[in-house]
Design brief:
This protein has one domain. It contains three helices and no strands. The chain is mainly alpha-helical. Keywords: Membrane, Transmembrane, Transmembrane helix.
Length: about 70
């Protein structure tokens, strides 16, 4: 099941995802909006804390390098 580390990292990246989602919606930045949505949802599908951190950091970097 979920460990406390998994729940903590999920909450951290979901909070960051909410910020990305709101920023993307207000600024019309589609990539930030999609990454924010993904950051809020992906932690439900993985149970390894290291994998959650790796995917979360990767999703946080996507809007920095992808411009649409």
């Amino acid at each position: 099941m979920f460990s406390s580390a998994t729940l903590l990292w999920g909450m951290v990246f979901s909070s960051i995802g909410l910020g990305y989602l709101l920023y993307g919606k207000r600024q019309g930045h589609v990539v930030a909006w999609v990454c924010g949505l993904a950051l809020m949802v992906y932690s439900y599908f993985f149970s390894d804390p290291y994998l959650i951190v790796a995917i979360g950091v990767g999703l946080m970097l996507v809007p920095r390098f992808v411009r649409v």
